[in-house]
Structure formats: C-alpha cells, structure tokens
Amino acid sequence: MAESELCGVGDIVRSMEGIDRAVLGYMCKDIIDGGRMMWLKAQGLKSELVKYVPSSISPENHLLVGR
Fold first, then answer.
1. What is the pTM of this model?
2. Contact 41, 47 (CB under 8 A)
3. How far is residue 1's CA from residue 36's CA, in Å, rounded to a whole number?
4. Which family is this protein grouped under (predicted)?
5. Cα–Cα distances in angstroms (integers) from residue 17 to residues 12, 20, 22, 29, 53, in the given order
6. Are 21 and 37 in contact (CB under 8 A)?
7. Residue 32, domain extent
8. Strand ranges, E, within 14-54
9. Which of 8, 36, 52, 62 has the fewest beta carbons closer than 10 A?
10. Residue 51: its pLDDT value, please?
11. What angle (nearest 5°) sits at the alpha carbon of residue 19, between those of residues 33 and 47?
C-alpha cells in the first residue's frame, strides 16, 4: 500500500459527517464510563450512571456516582 493511501484515525474522523462524529463520541464516552465503573467495582464500590437533565437541555447529562 502506498504511503498516500494510508490514513490515520484523524483522517477518518474528519471525513465523517457531524452526526456520525457525535454518535462516535457518545460511544467513546460510554466505553470510558464503563471502564470507570469497572474500576470502582474493583475498589469495592458500587456505581451508577445517573441522567440528571434531558438531552434537549444538555447532551452532557450523565453523572457517574460511586458509593
């Protein structure tokens, strides 16, 4: 494969439609939050994701609570 044919993740993301980038971003956040919840469980804590406002108010509407 020629070097000009190679593309990185940045090139792929830049070529995506805005809505697709947003969906991918939320999927990434879900993976990160899942990892955080696994870490909390390994520390002997319980955790939950709480939706505290509707998405129409803010797309950043989840809170990770550890107890």
1. 0.72
2. yes
3. 38
4. Belongs to the methyltransferase TRM13 family.
5. 10, 5, 9, 19, 26
6. no
7. 3-66
8. 47-51
9. 8
10. 94
11. 15
